[in-house]
Each structure stands twice: as structure tokens, then as C-alpha cells.
Specification:
single chain, 243 residues, alpha+beta, Jelly Rolls, six-stranded antiparallel beta sheet, two-stranded antiparallel sheet, 2 helices, 14 strands, disordered C terminus
């Protein structure tokens, strides 16, 4: 193969990779807005124009939608009646970046992520009533525009009766412990199905860690809203109910 032929071959290869790979990569980070209501679940408003206008992006990706429904399951962290609380937050950035409320504001990426203050720290979601949970999604920066501030030493705790201030209180149950590789991209963390109203991430390591978004899931009907009687009960008691 001559040098000119080899050069042409390389150019063609680059063009093919660009055409084939780039659209796919971009598509992964252009999610559409999810439903605002689904099977009786109502989700908080996601005003992406406002989110982008407020964002100090620093030349990095702008806010993107967090799913209200993922794999046929409602995101309990975005329920209209839900709430949040954190122990502390890095100072000097809110509202353009890193506010405490960004832990479950419905948008991904750095300027809409929560950054902790002094260690140890925690952030929690109140889903509004007791339901079942069995997995979360979390990461440091969904778009990977930033690779710093990654949580690597933390616990996932749940409570049904009281969200005690101290994470070692008896009302909290540890369902997952992470000590190892840092969590960079949005990552699924699974644990045994359990009842919960409050879900907390308690962070020990990584001073100044960023939680892009905390998503919570627990099945197709984790709060078990009866479509006929409009009654709410625990899904584990209704597994034989016809869907």
C-alpha cells in the first residue's frame, strides 16, 4: 500500500467513525422530556428553559432532562409531593451551580448538581409516603464534562418512620455500602427490595463530592396506587393484583 493510499484509507476511516459514532453519542445525551403524569403518579415540573438560563455552565454541557419514568418505573425522587434535605452544601455558587435543591431537581449535569460541604455529609429524598424501593441511579456528572468530585465512600440508607438527623440513628437501615471505584457517570445501584419513605446517601469520603441527581425506583407500582378504589397501600401486599 502506497503512502497516499494509506493516507486516504485513514481519512475514510475517520469519516466513517465520525458519521456512525457521533450521532449515537449525541443521542445518548439528548433525552426527551418524560411524562408529567404516569399511572396516577404526578411529577414535579421540569422547566428546562429556566434551568438553562440560570446555568453557569463554564463551557460544559447544559442541563438535560432526568427521566420521570425509567424502564417502566416511576422516578420516586421526582414525585410532586416529594421533598429533599441535605446536611451541608458548598458555599458561593447557588443559584448558578450546586444548590442543595439540585439533588432532585429533574436535571442532569454539573451546574444542576449538588456539591457537599464539609465531611461527613448527606443528602436525602422524601418520597412523600411509605413505598418499596430497590435501586437508585446516581453519578457525579452525567455528561462527564467534569471528572472531579466523585463519590467513592458512601452508604445508602432508608427509613420509614423518621428521618433522623444522625445517619447512625436506629430509624435508619443501611441497604448498600460503597467503598471502591468512584461513581462518575450516572450509575445504577441495586439493593434488596425494602420499604422506605426517606432515602439518604451518606458520604464519608471525597471532600466536595458532587451528586448530579439522585433517582429512586422500586418497581412498576411502588406506591401501589389502586386505579379503582384510589387507595394507597404497600406494593408487597398487592403482588397478585391484576395489572
Amino acid at each position: 500500500m502506497t503512502k497516499s493510499t494509506c493516507f486516504c484509507y485513514r481519512i475514510c476511516l475517520i469519516l466513517i467513525v465520525t458519521l456512525v459514532v457521533s450521532p449515537l453519542a449525541l443521542a445518548l445525551h439528548e433525552p426527551k422530556k418524560g411524562p408529567s403524569e404516569w399511572r396516577g403518579y404526578k411529577f414535579k415540573e421540569q422547566d428546562i428553559k429556566k434551568a438553562k438560563d440560570e446555568c453557569d455552565d463554564g463551557g460544559k454541557p447544559l442541563p438535560e432532562y432526568v427521566p420521570t419514568v425509567r424502564d417502566g418505573e416511576p422516578n420516586l425522587a421526582l414525585l410532586e409531593q416529594g421533598g429533599f434535605k441535605v446536611l451541608n452544601t458548598i458555599a458561593g455558587w447557588c443559584p448558578k451551580r450546586h444548590c442543595d435543591k439540585y439533588i432532585n431537581d429533574g436535571f442532569y449535569n454539573n451546574c444542576r448538581g449538588w456539591i457537599i460541604g464539609a465531611l461527613p455529609s448527606w443528602g436525602q429524598i422524601d418520597i412523600g409516603s411509605v413505598g418499596t424501593v430497590n435501586r437508585i441511579f446516581m453519578g457525579s456528572d452525567h455528561s462527564q464534562g467534569f471528572a472531579d468530585r466523585t463519590p467513592a465512600d458512601f452508604d445508602i440508607l432508608v427509613a420509614t418512620t423518621k428521618a433522623a438527623e444522625k445517619s447512625n440513628a436506629a430509624t435508619w437501615t443501611k441497604v448498600y455500602e460503597h467503598k471502591g471505584d468512584p461513581i462518575r457517570e450516572t450509575t445504577e445501584i441495586k439493593f434488596k427490595e425494602t420499604e422506605a419513605r426517606w432515602v439518604r446517601i451518606h458520604i464519608r469520603g471525597a471532600d466536595g463530592a458532587r451528586i448530579d441527581e439522585l433517582e429512586i425506583y422500586g418497581g412498576r407500582n411502588p406506591l401501589a396506587v389502586d386505579p379503582v378504589g384510589k387507595l394507597t397501600t404497600i406494593w408487597s401486599q398487592m403482588k397478585t393484583y391484576p395489572q
